[in-house]
Specification:
With 353 residues, this protein is α/β, with parallel strands linked by helices. The protein has twelve helices and nine strands. The longest helix has 24 residues.
Length: 353
């Protein structure tokens, strides 16, 4: 699928707003080329990125506290069988949100269904299986990531959660850009055993392939320092990362970066930092850092203009943990960076009327 965001901006997922309608209006006003449904952890009853996607997971107990999965129970085994059957049958209805889980989703859908659509692409996100399973433990406090049946359940669960979003956004006439959000990816890349790493990477690859087959642009977002080489081999359409802190790690795999661009991949450069409420938000410094990166990637067969056509600009991570004024400042800095590049590239295509 052709996706050339050409220096557009979008968010990773979370915003600090308390009201869903207010947050969605802010999204359409500030990220019109690639609007995203906002996750709202600070809203009344708001849930974090794990809590938003855990309800109904097989064998889950203690959802209000540190989530535990009883993977020895009949309920877990029955739930896993149901996941496999639903995935095979394309039964997606049980995997949608409720208004309590994701008020930002429902406000976004209502707003997008109304007048004023300017792009055919919209962004969603699902907490990835590595992050989800690492956040769960069994009764012995062992991470569910290292338990093969529990991780497989997480892979199927996340796949179905994403397929439901894709179906609903396609019904709106939109093309979904769906990010697999993996801020806790370290276990997949060597934190446990080689077997667990291979199983984890294979699981990510399957999720992304399923979403692509269903009609989405499939992205992977990572926050921490990671080992990049295996991530280029996952089949993601978009790779999103904290370029404010970890750009040099990304560029150490320069041949893989170039091949990713040559194959049509998009990089979402998280150029404005979000890791601290006091870090500098300086668009000029971010632009200088990006110019250097683009210059190092470009070669005689890969023009800088092509790199820009295949670039998104984002905050380094979600801004839901920041104060509202700080989140606003992050996006203002981001818009300043994007404006400095956008004249060199073409806009996203508009929705047909």
């Amino acid at each position: 699928m052709s996706f050339h965001p050409a220096g557009s901006i979008t968010g990773i997922g979370s915003l600090p707003h308390r009201g869903a309608a207010e947050a969605v209006e802010w999204v359409f006003r500030n990220t019109p080329d690639l609007p995203f449904w906002p996750q709202l952890p600070a809203s009344p009853g708001g849930r974090d990125m794990v809590g938003q996607f855990q309800t109904g997971f097989p064998g889950l107990v203690n959802p209000a506290g540190p989530p535990l999965v009883n993977n020895d129970s009949a309920g877990f085994r029955e739930g896993c069988e149901r996941l496999g059957a639903d995935l095979a049958a394309g039964n997606l209805d049980p995997y949608g949100f409720t208004p309590d889980e994701a008020p930002g989703w429902f406000a976004f859908v209502a707003r997008f269904s109304g007048a004023g659509r300017t792009t055919r692409f919209v962004k969603g996100q699902v907490t990835g299986p590595a992050t989800l399973s690492t956040s769960f433990a069994n009764k012995n406090r062992v991470s569910m990531f290292v338990t093969a049946d529990a991780f497989e359940a997480a892979v199927q669960w996340v796949t179905l959660k994403g397929l439901w979003q894709i179906r609903e956004l396609l019904r709106l006439g939109a093309t979904p850009v769906l990010f697999l959000d993996e801020p806790i990816l370290d276990p997949v890349l060597g934190g446990y055993s080689r077997t667990a790493e291979e199983r984890g990477l294979a699981g990510l690859r399957r999720v992304l392939a399923s979403w692509r087959a269903a009609g989405a642009v499939a992205g992977l977002h990572v926050c921490p320092q990671v080992r990049w080489k295996p991530l280029f081999e996952l089949g993601a359409d978009v790779l999103s990362f904290d370029a404010a802190q970890y750009l040099e790690d990304f560029l150490q795999e320069l041949d893989a970066v170039r091949n990713f661009f040559r194959a049509g991949g998009v990089v979402a450069w998280g150029v404005i930092p979000t890791h601290s409420p006091t870090c500098e938000l300086e668009p000029t410094a971010a632009r200088r850092q990006l110019d250097d990166a683009l210059g190092r990637i470009a070669d005689p067969t890969l023009a800088r203009e092509q790199l820009l056509r295949q670039s998104l600009f984002t905050p380094a991570c979600g801004t839901g943990g920041l104060e509202l004024h700080r989140s606003e400042a992050v996006f203002q800095a981001l818009k300043a960076v994007a404006r400095s590049y956008v004249e060199a590239a073409e806009p996203l295509p508009a929705l047909p009327h």
